[in-house]
Structures are given as C-alpha cells and as structure tokens.
C-alpha cells in the first residue's frame, strides 16, 4: 500500500466541502460553474477545493472552452472506493449547457 498516496487522499477528503463535491461527482462529470452553485462559494474557492481532490488523484478534469469539467477517476484505491460508497449521490449536481 502506498502510504503517501493514502495520506494525501485522506487529507483531501477530510473536509465537508470536498465530500459534498465528491457526492456530486458520483453522478458523472460536472462543470465547475455548477459546483459553485452547490457549495455557495466563489468560483476561485471551489476551484481550490477541486485542486486538492485532483492533486490527490481522486478526480480528474478536462477543459471545455473556458470552463473545467470534473469527474471521478475510474480506478480508485480500495480506501477511496469505501469512502465514495458511503457518500449519498447529490442529484442536484448536473452540468448545464450554459457553460459549454
């Protein structure tokens, strides 16, 4: 087991906002502009939260125009699989066509 990766991932999920973001991403890819509405934070603040999740290897992003779309990495560690399985899907997190 890679203890450094485990440490980084556990630190990344030790935050309520980031857990909320992961709950949203369980439904599929979502644009950062839609995640701003979910958390009620500024876009830069949401982007910082997403950056921590991305740096830990839990999520990945792709750029669409001026926006980034985020999704869960398909191959999660067993620990992350267990954590993600405990999170409730947030059905209110859906990508709108406005940001594309």
UniProtKB/TrEMBL annotation:
This is Winged helix-turn-helix transcriptional regulator. Residues 1-94 form the HTH arsR-type domain. CDD domains: HTH_ARSR (cd00090). It comes from Peribacillus psychrosaccharolyticus. GO terms for molecular function: DNA binding; DNA-binding transcription factor activity. InterPro entries: ArsR-like_HTH, HTH_ArsR_DNA-bd_dom, HTH_MetalResp_TranReg, WH-like_DNA-bd_sf, WH_DNA-bd_sf. Pfam families: HTH_5 (PF01022). Keywords: DNA-binding, Transcription, Transcription regulation.
């Amino acid at each position: 087991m890679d203890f450094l990766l485990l440490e980084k991932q556990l630190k990344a999920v030790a935050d309520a906002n980031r857990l909320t973001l992961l709950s949203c991403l369980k439904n599929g890819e979502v644009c950062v502009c839609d995640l701003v509405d979910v958390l009620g934070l500024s876009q830069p603040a949401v982007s910082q939260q997403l950056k921590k999740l991305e740096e830990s290897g839990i999520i990945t992003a792709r750029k669409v125009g001026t926006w980034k779309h985020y999704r869960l990495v398909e191959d999660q560690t067993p620990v992350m699989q267990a954590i993600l399985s405990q999170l409730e899907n947030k059905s209110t997190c859906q990508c709108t066509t406005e940001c594309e």
